[in-house]
Amino acid sequence: xxxFKTLSLAFLLLVANVQAGKITYTCYNxxxxxxxxxxxxxxxGGTIPDDQVQVVEDGMKTWSxxxxxxxxxxxxxILVVKCVEKVENKDLATAANNEQQQLVNSHIKKTKRDDGDxxxxxxxxxxxxxxxxxxxxxxxxxx
Length: 143
Hints:
Layout: H1 2-17, E1 21-29, E2 39-48, H2 50-63, E3 68-72, E4 79-83, H3 90-115
Parallel strand pairs: 1-4
Antiparallel strand pairs: 1-2, 3-4
């Protein structure tokens, strides 16, 4: 009995631990830091589906027209999206990190939607019940 419980717990932990890759967005701010000599601005992006990590890594440079790149850190296995060029201040670095995240979100959703089971519905094929004036379904509000 204990073996079954242990096996079940191990399976649940394994399932819960799979299917998500961590992602972070970075951009170098030339004037950041205490000495104003530059600082890497980072934004934690949470997780994305494991099957989308390679999609982001391969597509980021194209999606951003060369402004950003993406690569997986070999040690931490975190997907890092970063600016190709250093920016002048914190506001520009923050805006770049937000733009990186928007690009990832829009392309992941698009890819997942394109690769998933599509529901192709033709409007002409839909049947609509002919509804006549049916006062029984009217809602009355009392104030």
